[in-house]
Every structure is written in structure tokens, then in C-alpha cells.
Fold these 4 entries.
Entry 1:
Amino acid sequence: LKWPGFVEFDDINAKVLTYSAMGRVFKVWGMTNYELLYEVKDPGIQEIKTSPGALLCIYAREASHVALRVLSIEDGREVASLRHPLHPHARIDFIEQFRDTLFVKQEGHPLHLIDMRTGQLAEVAWCAELPSPAAFIFL
């Protein structure tokens, strides 16, 4: 690995996630022996996040939606994908995943909870005016 853009140690999944800026490739390594498990080569990925059992790939925002892919953290196979609709002039406060639930919050709008298994959407209206959290901790 040369010139890593970042290195993230994921204790929950026992994986190491790296990004090579030169090759524009994400790599997932086993934490026990630091063996390369697989690579994710997709120049459209704007951000990637780990959560228990999964990698969340976030693509560049379009005017009306954001494309998302969930990959298995174990082997990189696609588990789910969706195009989540967005309010066109509202800033995205956060996109996070915890297990099978995706959390999407836009400034001044309700929190969206999406069940990635069924695609079912739930809105939490009372969250519309809450400030964005500084960080997330999944226990």
C-alpha cells in the first residue's frame, strides 16, 4: 500500500479498511493476519463507511437522490443497493448504517430510517430541527 488516503481499523468486524489515492481503490484486510481479503474499485464512490457486517458505499449526490450500495464486509459482495430520494435544496446532515437500518438526515427535514432488507421507509418527524451529531458510536 503506497500513499494511503486513509487507514481505518474496525474492531467490530476485525477488518482494516484502506484507501489508495493513487489507484483510487479501497482495500479490506483481515485484522488478525493483515491478509488482503478483497478490493473495491469504483471511481463513483464518494465515501465508504463500516458498520457491523457491512460496508456502506455512498455515491455523489444527484439533485433528486443519492445512490447507496451495501457490501458484505466479509467478501465484498453486494447485499443491497438503492437510490434514496432527497430534498433538492437541503444539505445532507448524515448518512449512517447500523446493521440492516440506514439513517438518512437532511437539514430541516425528518430523519429517514430505511430497512435495507425490505426497503421500508419510516420518518421520525420530531428530529427535523435537531442539530447534527458530531459523531456516532455503535455499541
Entry 2:
Amino acid sequence: MITYHSYNSLKRFDLGYLLGRAIEKSQQIVKFAIAVLFHLSNVFAEFPLKELYCHGPSFLGLEGDSLPRICARITYHGDPEFWSLNMDECQRVYDSKEVAALHVWKPILMLIWAIGVFYMVTSIFATWALRRRERLDPDIVETYQAIRMLFRQFRRAMDTP
């Protein structure tokens, strides 16, 4: 009797529809997670880098000068009076230089953040392992040691002239 009711209720249950909806929802979650990562990238990397480029010191940015003076310095053509008469062209020149600077500095900043996150995660795992006082899985230890060796080799390669 119970088997008959179970079979009868499962017969009305559309497993294909349920799996289709589950796949759609998982795709939406993945798209949302990727969108959040890109948005965080813009908020925490692009905006500060633009501000640093515009108002930063001379070796990183443009020291917060006015737009005509910036264009005169960037292009080595004309003076600030010339560029104040041609503000549309000046804005295009400045925007292109800003985008070029972002293409250089944003990957560097992301790499620095990724290395920092990696070290934080490894520190958390090391602390967790010390607190457990148990032997870790040998495969995890071997993987961790391999990653540490790769980073040591990377640092040595970066330190060589």
C-alpha cells in the first residue's frame, strides 16, 4: 500500500522540470557571483587607480593639475591656452591615457591582492592545523609544500637582475 502511494506520487512528480529549474538557478547564481566579482573589481581597483592617476604624485599620476595643463604635459603639443580652447580633444586624450594606465596598473594590483589572499588563506589553514594538533592529510601537505616552493622560485626569479 505504501509503495503504491509512493509510486503514484512520484509519477505526478516531473523530475525533468525540477532538474531544469535547478540548472537554471545554478547558472543564475554563477552569473551573479561573476558579476559581483567584476563589480568589486571596479569598486576596489578601478576607482582608486583612476583617482591615483589623476591626483597622485608625478611618478604615478598627474598631480591633480587642470585638464588643459595635463594635456599640454601629456602631448608636448600646445600650451594650456590651446587646450582650453580644444577641451573635447583634450578630454579624449586624457581618457585614452587614463585607460592605458588602467590597463597597466589594474592587473598588477589584482596580482598583489591575489598573492595577499593566498597568504591569508595559507595562514588560516596553518593556524587551523596547529589548533587541531592532528596530522594533516599527506596530500594536502604535499600540495601546500609544492605551492610554497613555486612561490619561492617565483620570488627568486623576480629578485635576479
Entry 3:
Amino acid sequence: VTILWTILLSAYLYVKSFFGKGVLLAVGGNSGNPFYDFFLGRELNPRCLGSTFDWKEFCELRPGLIGWMLLDLAMLSKQYDRMGYVSGSMILINIFQGIYVWDALYQERAILTTMDITTDGFGFMLVFGDL
């Protein structure tokens, strides 16, 4: 389902990049080769909902990191159900990865300075990697 969603979102963003007014195109994703441009992404920061929702900024952190934390907690719960206790390593993994996720979400404004946001287009490569 996720792979299908990434293909559909990438296709939507690729087609949308040809019809938007004032669309800022990424240098790397504007080669003229449709396969290459689809993969790298033509539009730099695709937006919707009246330019208030930035697809790339949202997908860079939230779904992947929050999903990662939910998986960690689900594995912790499963280990408790199977073994009747939670191992020290599972506790440490959840604590350290939880701190990492919290820090990334708390310092989210720092992502605006990364190469992914400032120079890369939002195409299949980033959509698939982020989700």
C-alpha cells in the first residue's frame, strides 16, 4: 500500500509541476528527461491547500519518524506479551530512538536548512525514502 501511495503521490506531484502558476523548479529535476525528472522531482517545494501545506516539509519528518516510534513501541509491547517482561536492550532502544525522534520534531525548523529542502526536488526518490 505504501509503495502504491508513493507512486501515486510522485505522479501527482510530477504532473502538477507542469500546470502550477509560479512553480519553483529544482535544478536537478528539470533536465528534460521525464524519467529522471520524475525520479528526482521537478518542483522544489510542492504545496497544496492554497499554498499552506508543503508536501516535502511534511513528509521529511513526520510520517517516517512518528511511524518509527510507533513501531518501536509496538515491538516493546509484543515483547512484553511474549516474554512477560521487557529486556534492557528494548528499553534502551525505545529511550534513545524516542529522544532522537523528539529532538527531530522539536527542532523541526532546522530541517529548513538541509539540502533536501533547499535544493532537491520532491520526486519519487524523496517520497519513497520519506514514507
Entry 4:
Amino acid sequence: KKSLVFPADGTDVEIFLNYGPLYEIVRLRKGYSRLPAKEKYKRLKKLESEDEEYLRDIDGFCGESIADCVAFLQHILRKSGAVKKQVERRALLLLPLLSNRAKALLHSDEDVDKEGLQGITRSIGNLIRKLSKQNRF
């Protein structure tokens, strides 16, 4: 199977593999779907709806979930590659929502790690400033 892997942009990429029908979601998101235009449009609308639902779920995140998301984004953003700009743009959409949730938890009556949440909001702010500068927003 090593013959099906080659380095591209510093990342190993597999080629000539059929991952099956479930992989179509990935192809849709990355813009190389094999579906007819009408079906592609329908599925993209459904994915958009699922994305919106996920973003609404952030309103229920606890401090630990927010910290995990921020740590994951920091890890991913340290990597370079062909999709880095796309990841940065999506992170810029996600980070303010995570910040808002952390601030809401700070001002709530819930028993939370206030010091930890304050650190998370500072990290998010720094990350937003860095990404905004890099992407010239």
C-alpha cells in the first residue's frame, strides 16, 4: 500500500482509492464531488444546514470543550499545507463563537474554572488577531 502514498506539500496523500459513498461528503466539502449538479446542490444545502446546527451546539459547550476546540485549532493551524488558508478562514468563523460561549460561562452562575476560561478567551483573542493579520481582514 505504500505505493499509493506520496508526499504533497509536506503531507502524505493517498491516491487512487475509492473510499465509498460516505466519502462523498468530504468530496463535496473540498469541491471535487462526482455528483450531478442538481444532487450536488441538494447535498451542499444539507451540509450547510448541518454546519449551522453544529455552530448552534457551541452554545451548550462547557469550558473543557471550548479549551479542546481551541487546542485543536492551534494544533491544526501550526501545520502548513494546501488547505491552510481555508482552515484559517473557517477558524475565524468559529473562534468568535467559542469566545462568546466562554464569556457567557464566565458571567453565568455555573460553577466554572473562571481563571481557565479567562485564559481561553485571551488565547482566542490572540489567535483571532494573528489570523486576521495574516489574512488581511
